[in-house]
Queue: 2 jobs
Job 1
Amino acid sequence: MAKARTPREAWIDAGLRTLAAGGPDAVRIEALARDLGVTKGGFYGFFADRPALLDALLDAWERRAVAEVLERVEQEGGDPLTRARRAGALTFSGELTPVDLAIRDWARRDPDVADRLRRVDGRRMDYLRAQFAGRFTDDLELEARCLLAFSAAIATGLIAADHPGHTRREVLGRATALLFSDGRGGEA
């Protein structure tokens, strides 16, 4: 009986885990095959070479971190604040954040990856703008709030500061309320 071929998605999942753990230089065909418990020959049925795999990793990250997140958020619905919070929670989840951070680091050295990251971040910011455009009519205020919210979502896992007398969850909740308040004491 012939052994079933390792699915393309398994190569991509293994590649994303490796990318998150060690950056793009760690993504090697032989190492992925070893991690998957297969020979590297099956790799070439899906990818022409390592650069093709790296492109596929970026495609998968973009699909999972933007398209799938926004589709899920829109299906679940809710008011703009609920949708924005859910999008942030899904986008910067334990599964996606390590990959996102690895790609941000990679983008510092690779202009093509930087272009991809700029596009992805642009889509994320566009979504935030859309959620709050009706609430914040001043373009500069809208842009500032979106930038601060997006920055906080990315940086939360990078900041190791303590919050004397408060939990991280309490502080993040208050920060979110401040960012999305309407300036009159109500939430957006």
Note: Residues 50-76 form the longest helix (27 residues).
Job 2
Amino acid sequence: MNVWESDKLILFILFVIPGFIAMKFYSMLVAPDAYRDSSKQLVDAIAYSCFNYAIPFPIILYFEKIKLIDSSPNGYIFFYFFLILIFPIVLTYIWHKIRSCPRLRQKVTHPAGKPWDFIFSKQNKTYFIKVTLKDGKVVGGFYGENSFSSSSPNPEQLFLEQTWIISDKGKFERPKNDSAGIIILTNEVSHIEFRHGVINGK
């Protein structure tokens, strides 16, 4: 069987490409899934593609009934271009927003698989972070726009752009001089505390 034959290629584009676009875009919005067998991804892609056509199906039937391809070839091409390449992104974005809605949190599972991914996926959020290591040592730092956290399925690691000195009473005193940040490996961590706002010895 030659997959590059015109009829098979059209079927591949129609029933695989939209699903793969939806899956890849979703992985950009949330932490990507761990590696899955390509055959299972193909089945998922076909299922998502079918769902992609199910919602606008009455519109598809209408355009085919009035033979839009004859009356407006450019409009016909644009419609299917949007349906195959753009509409999967729109649906995926809406679904992500639904799953992230606090009001639906009890009925629909949240897209973030772990608290780690949930807290660090929030955009424009800055924190002062106090990390308690398994040996009891406390490390403080600032998580800002130049900091970075890994996401699933990668092991949890954290880069804090500033390292802060923590007093014996657990207060954030000041950033360390000439500090260029610190990388924290979570296999050495007992727990992490987050604080909002600017801290001046509090």
Note: The CA atoms of residues 32 and 113 lie 10 Å apart.
